[in-house]
């Protein structure tokens, strides 16, 4: 069943067309990764889905409802939560206080503080520590827990791997099956292609705001992905 349907979406930053006529669909229970080089438009797309960048044209339907122009705070109530690039925790608040900011507009659903603590077993023992005392990977986990506490149907995760060592990234991503298993669908923006291919059911590669390649990781060759990522070779033919 389709949860998210994006049609011909264009988002500008001033004169710059950061997302350019993009279309994609996301099924309930899927993990979709958006990959692409720096400046390809990945974060702009995610921010547009969270209601933080307004599209110039096109449409976004979520659970059958047109949310193209819905303000950000109403999207949380509709069931969309963003884990923003750079985590954006309150550094002087504790782990638990940061988590609870996500429960402010809590919807009914499986995610409670106890359930988040089950997902990240290291957290309960550190719940009274300030976020500033956590490592990058731990902060990223708190940002994910905070988003889950609104009980989203769709979790948007922007550049989870940014600034983290590969081994830490892998560990943070280990929670993804538990999240999807609880009924939450995930849309990730990931610059680390190998990581995206490991965790996603399907990937879309963006180039200059357009989706130039999409498919299941096992159906895509490394060469196809590389060409799409850098905009070279056959995937570009006929586009200009
Ligand atoms: P990155 O991995 O570097 O974040 P990205 O694929 O997420 O790249 P975006 O951040 O969406 O790409 O940026 C797409 C284009 O829009 C880039 O050319 C970027 O410079 C530009 N851009 C992004 N945000 C703004 C902004 N607030 N104002 C002006 N231009 C912006």
Give descriptors for this structure:
alpha/beta, disordered C terminus, 9 helices, Rossmann fold, 240 residues, 6-stranded mixed beta sheet
Task: Kindly describe this structure.
- This protein has helices spanning 42-50, 72-78, 95-101, 113-119, 136-148, 166-173, 176-181, 193-199, 222-230, and strands at 2-13, 16-27, 31-35, 57-62, 65-66, 80-83, 154-158, 185-189, 202-207, 210-215.
- The chain is α/β, with parallel strands linked by helices.
- It has one domain (2-230): Rossmann fold (3-Layer(aba) Sandwich), CATH 3.40.50.
- The strands form two sheets. A six-stranded mixed sheet has the order 6-7-8-3-9-10, with helices on both faces.
- The protein is globular.
- The two termini are 34 Å apart.
- The model is unreliable at 235-240 (pLDDT under 50).
- The site of adenosine-5'-triphosphate has 13 residues, from strand 2 and helix 1.
Topology:
Layout (H helix, E strand, L loop, with lengths): L1 E12 L2 E12 L3 E5 L6 H9 L6 E6 L2 E2 L5 H7 L1 E4 L11 H7 L11 H7 L16 H13 L5 E5 L7 H8 L2 H6 L3 E5 L3 H7 L2 E6 L2 E6 L6 H9 L10
Parallel strand pairs: 3-8, 3-9, 6-7, 7-8
Antiparallel strand pairs: 1-2, 1-4, 4-5, 9-10
The structure holds adenosine-5'-triphosphate.
Adenosine-5'-triphosphate binds next to β2 and α1.
């Amino acid at each position: 069943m389709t949860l998210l349907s994006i049609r011909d979406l264009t988002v500008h930053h001033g004169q710059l067309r950061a997302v350019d006529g993009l279309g994609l669909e996301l099924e309930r229970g899927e993990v979709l990764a958006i990959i692409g080089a720096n400046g390809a438009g990945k974060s702009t797309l995610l921010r547009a889905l969270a209601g933080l960048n307004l599209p110039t044209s096109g449409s976004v339907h979520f659970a059958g409802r047109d949310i193209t122009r819905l303000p950000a705070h109403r999207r949380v109530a509709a069931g969309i939560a963003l884990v923003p690039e750079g985590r954006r925790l309150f550094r002087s608040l504790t782990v638990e206080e940061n988590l609870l900011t996500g429960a402010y507009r809590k919807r009914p659903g499986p995610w409670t503080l106890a359930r988040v603590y089950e997902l990240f077993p290291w957290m309960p023992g550190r719940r009274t520590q300030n976020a500033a005392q956590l490592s990058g990977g731990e902060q990223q986990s708190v940002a994910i827990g905070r988003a889950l506490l609104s009980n989203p149907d769709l979790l948007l995760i922007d550049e989870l791997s940014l600034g983290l060592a590969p081994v830490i990234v892998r560990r943070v991503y280990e929670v993804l099956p538990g999240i999807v298993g609880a009924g939450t669908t995930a849309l990730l923006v990931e610059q680390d292609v190998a990581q995206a291919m490991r965790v996603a059911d399907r990937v879309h590669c963006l180039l200059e705001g357009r989706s130039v390649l999409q498919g299941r990781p096992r159906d895509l060759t490394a060469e196809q992905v590389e060409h799409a990522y850098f905009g070279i070779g056959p995937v570009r033919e006929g586009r200009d």
